[in-house]
């Protein structure tokens, strides 16, 4: 079992569709300022994920989203690091432990 999982921008929505316990696409669209399904709206301080063979306790999940700085037009990498904690018999709670922005 891998101790770390890396999920890049184009795979984030699919990961949540398959693994998030309370995934509600309509609610996520409402959270978005323009009604689009956006990965930024999914990445919160705590996430609740289904227990599965791909996920394990204390595992770290990294989500990466590239963005462009408006003033400098530089490419930025937003990296979210979550650690899986026990929640109950069917879910893990993924806790945000680190968030970094680096210039590419």
Structure description:
- With 104 residues, the chain is α+β, with helices and mostly antiparallel strands.
- The protein has one domain.
- The chain has two helices and five strands, in the order βααββββ.
- The chain has helices spanning 9-19, 25-31, and strands spanning 4-8, 46-50, 60-68, 75-86, 91-103.
- Strands 1-3-4-5-2 form a five-stranded mixed beta sheet, covered by helices on one side.
- Strand 3 (60-68) and strand 4 form a beta hairpin.
- The protein is globular, with a radius of gyration of 14 Å.
- The mean pLDDT is 85.
Please specify the SSE layout and strand pairing:
Layout: E1 4-8, H1 9-19, H2 25-31, E2 46-50, E3 60-68, E4 75-86, E5 91-103
Parallel strand pairs: 1-3
Antiparallel strand pairs: 2-5, 3-4, 4-5
Distance between the first and last residues' Cα:
30 Å
Mean pLDDT: 85
What is the overall silhouette? globular
Give the tally of structural domains: 1
Strand sequence of the main sheet, in spatial order? 1-3-4-5-2
Structural class: alpha+beta
User: Uncertain regions: pLDDT < 50 for 5+ in a row?
Assistant: none
- Please provide the ordered H/E string of secondary-structure elements: EHHEEEE
How large, in whole angstroms, is the Cα Rg? 14 Å
